[in-house]
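Students often ask what a holo structure prediction actually looks like on paper. The answer is less mysterious than it sounds. You provide the chain, you provide the ligand, and the output is a string of discrete structure tokens encoding the 3D arrangement of the protein together with adenosine-5'-triphosphate.
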Amino acid sequence: MSADTDVLLAEDLTIAYGGAPPSVSGVSLRVRRGEIVGVIGESGSGKSSVALAVMGLLPVSAVVSAERLSVAGSDMRAATERDWAQVRGVRASMVFQEPMSALNPCMRIGAQIAEVLRIHGTVGRRRARERAMELLELVRMPDPRRRLDYYPHQLSGGQRQRVVIAIAVAADPAVLVADEPTTALDMTVQAQILDLIRTLRDETGMGVLFISHDLGVVGQLCERVAVMYRGRTVESGAAERVLDDPHHPYTQALLDSIPRPSVASRSPLAVIPADNDYAHVPAVLEEVR
Ligand SMILES: Nc1ncnc2c1ncn2[C@@H]1O[C@H](COP(=O)(O)OP(=O)(O)OP(=O)(O)O)[C@@H](O)[C@H]1O
Ligand SMILES: [Mg+2]
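The corresponding structure tokens follow.
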């Protein structure tokens, strides 16, 4: 596959906060057009740090280095805030875990979506409202015309996340970075949002970097997956292969630590010891270059 199908490419990404030892070391990731790539790993393994780095959203205290960092076709290694502003929200968008924090509680959702459209400069005032409604239709919001005039608190959690996703895809980005977008939602709504992300990918051809600690979710949604442990990728490859036949002992332990309906339900779950260090075990990585 040629490089121009890459919508996200990070090679040897390292992130250190405020002079501390790196929180992320030598991570490489590739998302191609129309592909959903999962990043899994336990809390603190560096997943959000990677997501923020590829969106240019790390705090100034963070020192980032990478052999390559290409976002929606632009080399972002030496990008200034002004360069990021050209890319973020336009060619690359992000969805976070908690939809309420991404929305303005005092503003009707139609006006919030329209404001983003006008910032992108694509449409005038009247057209912006029509386009906002089309976007609510695109994210399968029930009764979208009426809901344009709702405030965020009048929506359910799942509906709020639909609004956040509508804003994220408003400018037809090449890549969507979703950091635990369904963790705050119940199981049924989670399934609907995952289905929506898959549908939007099918309809728009965007690539998706999907971060989750939930192996089940990643298995359902992603074509490829990277497993992070203590700031490094320990295993990556086709989702089916990694999840059905994990080669790295950490991935094996991670899979053994989750409840699976098929496994005799009374057998105790494996616990990953906190001090278990897999640093000596070679990573099992697919070719990224
Ligand atoms: N702003 C920050 N300043 C200093 N250290 C940070 C900052 N953000 C993250 N870290 C550190 O980087 C490491 C990785 O954190 P990160 O948030 O990337 O993990 P995560 O895999 O997303 O975890 P979770 O599943 O809990 O969201 C942690 O040790 C954390 O303390
Ligand atoms: Mg996180």
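The pocket of adenosine-5'-triphosphate (ligand 1) is lined by residues 17-18, 23, 41, 43-49, 59, 213 (CB under 6 Å).
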